[in-house]
Amino acid sequence: MKLHTTPTQQYQTITGYETDSVEINAIVYQHSLIVLPEIKPVSWPVNRFAELTEASFEQVLAHQPDVVILGTGAKQQFVHPRLIQALTAKRIGVESMDSQAACRTYNILMAEGRKVALALIMEQA
């Protein structure tokens, strides 16, 4: 799926999404990532939703976003509150959705100037 470009190209914008990859500013990635508007995507060592731990979210917390969009793969899955306790303690919202919806939502929030982080799980076999 190709997404439409916007005048936000100085930021990390999702420009395409497939089930096994994501395109950010025309660069294709095939592994899990943390994406923030003003820094290059950061590799995220999560290969499957079931592998999420508190430490997974500590890596996201280090970037101090206002909200985290969690892309859980082909279907929406909800993370156990205990895993995101460090984020909620700092009043950082976490929204879980399928990865395509997460990419669209990230682009919208980023274009609005929100300090958003996309934690995107790209399932690995």
From TrEMBL:
UniProt cross-references to InterPro entries, sorted A to Z: MTH938-like_sf (IPR036748), NDUFAF3/AAMDC (IPR007523)
PANTHER family associated with the record: NADH DEHYDROGENASE [UBIQUINONE] 1 ALPHA SUBCOMPLEX ASSEMBLY FACTOR 3, NUCLEAR PROTEIN E3-3
Name by which UniProt lists this protein: Mth938-like domain-containing protein
Provenance organism: Undibacterium curvum
